[in-house]
């Protein structure tokens, strides 16, 4: 327990998110439909190909999802702090950040997840489908999971199309086969349509997710970094459009009103929390992104010293 709230170490610790339960039910449904409908309705060669690719990819999805859910990505310094054997003490070597919620030193890239109530080492995002945070220890498992899931969904989609093609081109044979082996042709074709639409939509979403993580890897950003960056960028754009007056806090405590769009000038505070408005996450550490010189003057979350005010060109004033 921390601050009256239970610490969730992995995805198998309750409470379970509704998406997590839905993923279990959908996986069970897909396996049942594949075994009951797809296997009997396909010819021998197609049946062998489908069985190999579908069930092998489905096995990978289940195994990798289990490992990613079971994994504990908690910051090791936070674990040491909450370990009774440490008596609440810890060394500060190699620690450059402090979490005011966990009340302990943490790694610089760690973030505090309010859903799990813990700091996660190299936090990427909280996955509702796994009910667990994705961080340093299980990020590679997450990538392998979405790749395996993409293969699994594409296999379902391709063979759904094959069965639908047989239905439209050889309706008589398809109907006889469905009635003979499964008893109801209409129910069979309805389930195949459902599987085709489901696998098609989710395979596209999964491909987009894989592409996003490849893009973020090239930028050297996490999913959380990307979300915060876009959020701050949108806020800055809105401030520039509104062109509101900002107050400069001078080093001697005096206030100067100045009209610089989207720029807040004041003393830099490393204890400030730029994520206070986040619904899902809390962080007690400042987050810095690589801004270029032009963007530095327009970002609303950037603080500069009052002595630098005169360096801004007159074009920046409203």
TrEMBL record:
<keyword id="KW-0812">Transmembrane</keyword>
<feature type="transmembrane region" description="Helical">
    <location>
        <begin position="188"/>
        <end position="211"/>
    </location>
</feature>
<comment type="similarity">
    <text>Belongs to the DHHC palmitoyltransferase family.</text>
</comment>
<feature type="transmembrane region" description="Helical">
    <location>
        <begin position="45"/>
        <end position="66"/>
    </location>
</feature>
<protein>
    <recommendedName>
        <fullName>Palmitoyltransferase</fullName>
        <ecNumber>2.3.1.225</ecNumber>
    </recommendedName>
</protein>
<feature type="transmembrane region" description="Helical">
    <location>
        <begin position="21"/>
        <end position="39"/>
    </location>
</feature>
<dbReference type="GO" id="GO:0016020">
    <property type="term" value="C:membrane"/>
</dbReference>
<dbReference type="GO" id="GO:0006612">
    <property type="term" value="P:protein targeting to membrane"/>
</dbReference>
<feature type="domain" description="Palmitoyltransferase DHHC">
    <location>
        <begin position="96"/>
        <end position="227"/>
    </location>
</feature>
<dbReference type="Pfam" id="PF01529">
    <property type="entry name" value="DHHC"/>
</dbReference>
<dbReference type="InterPro" id="IPR001594">
    <property type="entry name" value="Palmitoyltrfase_DHHC"/>
</dbReference>
<keyword id="KW-1133">Transmembrane helix</keyword>
<dbReference type="InterPro" id="IPR039859">
    <property type="entry name" value="PFA4/ZDH16/20/ERF2-like"/>
</dbReference>
<dbReference type="GO" id="GO:0019706">
    <property type="term" value="F:protein-cysteine S-palmitoyltransferase activity"/>
</dbReference>
<keyword id="KW-0012">Acyltransferase</keyword>
<dbReference type="GO" id="GO:0005783">
    <property type="term" value="C:endoplasmic reticulum"/>
</dbReference>
<keyword id="KW-0472">Membrane</keyword>
<dbReference type="GO" id="GO:0005794">
    <property type="term" value="C:Golgi apparatus"/>
</dbReference>
<feature type="transmembrane region" description="Helical">
    <location>
        <begin position="141"/>
        <end position="168"/>
    </location>
</feature>
<keyword id="KW-0808">Transferase</keyword>
């Amino acid at each position: 327990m921390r601050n009256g709230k239970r610490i969730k170490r992995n995805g198998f610790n309750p409470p379970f998110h509704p998406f997590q339960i839905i993923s279990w039910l959908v996986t069970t449904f897909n396996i049942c439909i594949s075994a009951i409908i797809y296997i009997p309705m396909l010819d021998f060669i197609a049946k062998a190909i489908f069985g190999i690719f579908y069930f092998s990819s489905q096995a990978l999805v289940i195994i990798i999802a289990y490992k990613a859910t079971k994994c504990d990505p908690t910051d090791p310094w936070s674990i040491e702090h909450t370990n009774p054997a440490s008596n609440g003490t810890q060394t500060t070597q190699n620690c450059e950040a402090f979490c005011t919620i966990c009340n302990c030193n943490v790694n610089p890239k760690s973030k505090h997840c309010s859903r799990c109530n813990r700091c996660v080492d190299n936090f990427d995002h909280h996955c509702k489908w796994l009910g667990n945070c994705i961080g340093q220890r299980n990020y590679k498992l997450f990538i392998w999971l979405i790749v395996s899931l993409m293969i699994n969904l594409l296999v379902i989609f391709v063979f759904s199309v094959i069965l639908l093609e047989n239905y439209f081109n050889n309706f008589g044979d398809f109907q006889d086969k469905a009635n003979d082996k499964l008893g109801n042709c209409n129910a069979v074709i309805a389930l195949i349509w459902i599987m085709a639409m489901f696998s098609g939509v989710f395979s596209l979403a999964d491909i987009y997710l894989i592409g996003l993580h490849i893009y973020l890897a090239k930028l050297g950003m996490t999913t959380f970094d990307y979300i915060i960056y876009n959020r701050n960028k949108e806020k800055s754009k809105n401030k520039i459009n509104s062109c509101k007056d900002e107050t400069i806090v001078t080093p001697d405590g005096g206030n100067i009103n100045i009209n610089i769009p989207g720029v807040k000038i004041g003393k830099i505070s490393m204890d400030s929390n730029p994520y206070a408005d986040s619904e899902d996450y809390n962080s007690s550490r400042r987050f810095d992104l690589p801004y270029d010189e032009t963007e530095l003057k327009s970002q609303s979350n950037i603080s500069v010293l009052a002595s630098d005010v005169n360096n801004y060109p007159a074009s920046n004033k409203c």
